[in-house]
Amino acid sequence: MTPPTTSADSTPDPHSPLEEALARLAESRKQLEYVFAAIGEGIWDWDISTDQVSRNTRGCELLGLDHTFTGHTAAEFRELIAEEDRLGMADALQHCLSGHGPYHCEYRVRHPSGRLVWVRDRGNVVEYAADGRPLRMIGSLSDISLEREASANLRLTSSVFRHAHESIVITDTSANILDVNDAFCRITGYLRSEIIGRNTRFLRSGLQTSEFYTDMWQRLIRDGVWQGELWNRKKHGELFAQLGNISAVRNEAGQTTHYVGLFSDITEIKESQRHLEHLAYHDALTQLPNRSLLADRMQMALAQAERNATLAAVAYLDLDGFKPVNDSHGHDVGDLLLVEIARRLQASSRAGDTVARMGGDEFALIYNGLEHSEECEQVFARLLAGIAEPVTLRGRELQVSASIGITLFPLDGADPDTLLRHADQAMYMAKQAGGNCFHLFDPERDRSLRAHRAAVARVESALNDRELELHYQPKVDIRRNRIIGVEALLRWRHPQHGVILPGEFLPAVMDSDFEIELGNWILATAVDEIQAFADAGHPLPVSVNVSPNHLAHPDFIAHLQALLARYPRLPSGMLELEILESTSFSDIGAVSRIMEACQQLGVRFALDDFGTGYGSLTYLRRLPVQTIKIDQSFVRDMLEDNDDLAIVQGVIGLAAAFRREVIAEGVETAAHRQALLALGCHLIQGFGVARPMPPDQLLVWIREGEAGQ
Ligand code: C2E
Ligand code: CA
Ligand code: CA
Asked: Above 80 in pLDDT, residue 198?
């Protein structure tokens, strides 16, 4: 029997029990190795007496050691550990080696690539020497990088949650609160313990409608997120505004498991916004709405009036006698007075009405829901009385009143700006009527006024476009059969309507500023023509019709003088002015002084349409006229109507008595001509002689007449 050898050259007997045991051992080692590899654990085995550490494949991988690794010493291993962690690892190891229990440590190892990997290292002493010295340790190493990262994230998340400035609420899918952060508690005044488990509904302020919440839930369910502003109520009842979002948290199967709300408190922003808005829409002194807010309110009031078929009164109010108060008592007192008036205005208005300050001592009012204009008048009469009540300020009793202009929508169907302007216009009328009263704007009157202004404007542009011209109608002496002069008559050569007679457009111009401008143009054109006639070898007196306003205008004489001065060669006495006898001159003395001044300039005067007015005799006596013109209405009917014949006769007699020249106008037939001559009137003008015509035609007419003689 040869003893079993372990020499290298001997062939082991595969059937010996020892060999079998060794093979089983190797097999189970391999299995163990597989198990460790499968669970990802790296196994190490440290023979302390020889200071050799061996590792399985996974162990090598974890440390970044390649397949050439055959083992290392504990000191060599320490080199692989991140420097900062080495001490901790050594301590833990020492702890175990000195018999204080198993070894456990987490540290980082540095791979050859430089990457740091977190590992958890666990082990224990498995063999001791007889004297108790540890001889061998076995342990396992695992990669805990992911675990570490996850817990770092978790720490970060919970710190964000806790310390966030925004309030955070986490709820279950039915909005029952699971958790809130400190900011939430700080803002709402609730303790965490007071609200965990409650439904977020209890925070509601009541400011949002149920539709608002329905919409919020719909969005959350559909989109998984809701964003917006929310007014909620704090523990002590105070309201607060939040801006933020609510997100649905979904699990891997896509089902919502939680909701997370993240909100910032915007109460202060809202408040300052509101303050700013108030400033922007209110008057600082009286706190009344200003112009901008008035415009808004007006829009609403008009819509309401239309809807309810009621009247809305838009009124403009201006204080009477405010300036003297300001001047004599100082601006402080003036301000106090305005505040008091504002208070009274507001006190007399109803809910839904608007009282606004427009600036200075001007206010605008909108009264809603009036049934008829009498109701409006009662309201404003009361208002006036209220304003006129004395005010005691700083021991002084003051009193002001108001002028109010009112327009009623929709009787006045204008737009808001225009309504206000109409009220302002009406206020002006109230002022002119002496104040302490109101005036109702009259849309009808305004329409005709505007039509009138438009008519004036049309004539004005006709003048600018050179569509106006003067025609000239001859006046003749039938005894001598000679032309003695012409009357200038205005014509509008309209590009579409042809020649328009003055009766159609001149009345509109009367009493407008343009009347004077037009009169001056007529005068200048006529004087120009006088010069032209003279230059053409036919010096002719020209009479120009002058409107009473024009004649009475303060600049009339100066203007006429300047005009004539421009024509130094103009034959004197060639310009005659016809003034209407039918006008009632308010100051006959002033008119006659003007006429005398004109006569100093060599200008003659005729009284036009004589006999049609009431003051014929007075005028004849007091006004320095050279000529009277018998009105054409008498001339026309003198052959049939004895009264008219008597008047014509009378005028001719008067002219003789006052030693004035007399001319009959509107002479259309030879019969008239004969009759007038028989009565002693030999100067005539009329279609029977010639129609008014442009200057060039007039010259032709004159030359033909001369040739025919
Ligand atoms: P008037 O000053 O009485 O002028 C005479 C009017 O009688 C003119 O009408 C003339 O065309 C018309 N007429 C002349 N002869 C006859 C006739 O035989 N039969 C009839 N039926 N009518 C005759 P016209 O040009 O339409 O002017 C009307 C009025 O307009 C003038 O009445 C005058 O008051 C005013 N007017 C005309 N031109 C001017 C002007 O340049 N300035 C001013 N302020 N008024 C003017
Ligand atoms: Ca005339
Ligand atoms: Ca006339």
From this structure: yes
Q: Dump strand ranges (E) for 611-694.
A: 627-630, 661-665, 683-685
> What is the residue with the minimal CA distance to atom 14 of ligand 1?
686
Helices (H), 232-316: 267-281, 291-308
Locate 10 and state its tokens.
């001997």
**CA proximity to 580, closest of 613, 552, 550, 621:** 613
Closest ligand 1 atom to 550 CA: 44
Q: What is the pLDDT of residues 666-708, one digit of tens each?
A: 999 999 999 999 999 999 999 999 999 999 999 999 999 877 6
Pick the CATH number of 288-441 from 3.30.565.10, 3.40.50.12780, 3.30.70.270, 3.40.50.970: 3.30.70.270
- For the cut 90, the answer to whether the pLDDT of residue 6 exceeds it is no
Taking only the tens place, the pLDDT of each residue in 487-512 is 999 999 999 999 999 999 999 999 89
Distance 608 CA to ligand 3 centre (A): 5
Residue with the smallest CA separation from ligand 1 atom 17 is 666
Is there an atom of ligand 1 within 6 Å of 686 CB?
yes
Q: How far is the CA of 546 from the centre of ligand 2 (A)?
A: 9
Q: Does domain 474-708 have CATH number 3.20.20.450?
A: yes
- Find tokens 């507001």 and name the residue: 346
Name the closest ligand to CA 469: 1
Nearest CA residue ID for atom 2, ligand 1: 545
For residue 452, the CA-to-ligand 2 centroid distance in Å is 24
In the predicted model, is pLDDT for residue 280 greater than 50?
yes
Nearest-atom index, ligand 1, CA of 546: 44
pTM of the model as a whole = 0.55
Atom 35 of ligand 1 has which residue's CA nearest to it?
502
- Specify the DSSP class assigned to residue 707: H
**513-535 vs 695-708: helix crossing angle, rounded to 10:** 40
Q: Is the model's pLDDT at 252 over the cut of 90?
A: no
Determine if ligand 1 sits within 6 Å of the CB of residue 269: no
Please report, for the chain, the start and end positions of each structural domain, with discontinuous segments joined by +: 35-149, 164-271, 288-441, 474-708
Residue 646 CA to ligand 2 center (angstroms) comes to 22
Which ligand 1 atom minimizes the distance to the CA of 578? 2
Q: Please check whether the two domains, 164-271 and 474-708, share a CATH topology.
A: no
354-403 pLDDT, tens per residue?
A: 999 999 999 999 999 898 888 889 999 999 999 999 999 888 899 999 99
In CATH, the architecture of 164-271 is 2-Layer Sandwich (3.30)
CA of 624 to the centre of ligand 1 (A): 22
Q: Which ligand is nearest to the CA of 631?
A: 3
Q: How far apart are CA 488 and CA 522, in angstroms?
A: 9
SS3 for 253-265 is CCCEEEEEEEEEE
545 lines ligand 1 (CB under 6 A): yes
Query: At 459, phi and psi to the nearest 5?
Result: -65, -35
Class of domain 35-149: alpha beta
d(CA 434, CA 429): 9
Share of residues in the chain with pLDDT > 70 (%): 97
CB 542 less than 6 A from any atom of ligand 1 = no
Interatomic CA distance for residues 278 and 614, integer angstroms: 66
- Ligand 1 closest atom vs CA 488: 41
Could you read off the pLDDT of 546-605 as tens digits, one per residue?
999 999 999 999 999 999 999 998 888 899 999 987 777 778 888 999 999 999 999 999
Pocket test for ligand 1, best of 486, 545, 689 (most atoms within 8 A of CB): 545
556-573: pLDDT as tens digits: 999 999 999 999 988 888
Length of the chain: 709
- Looking from the CA of residue 526, the nearest atom of ligand 1 is 41
- Who's near 114: CB < 8 A, 6+ residues apart? none
Tell me if 506 CB under 6 Å of ligand 1.
yes
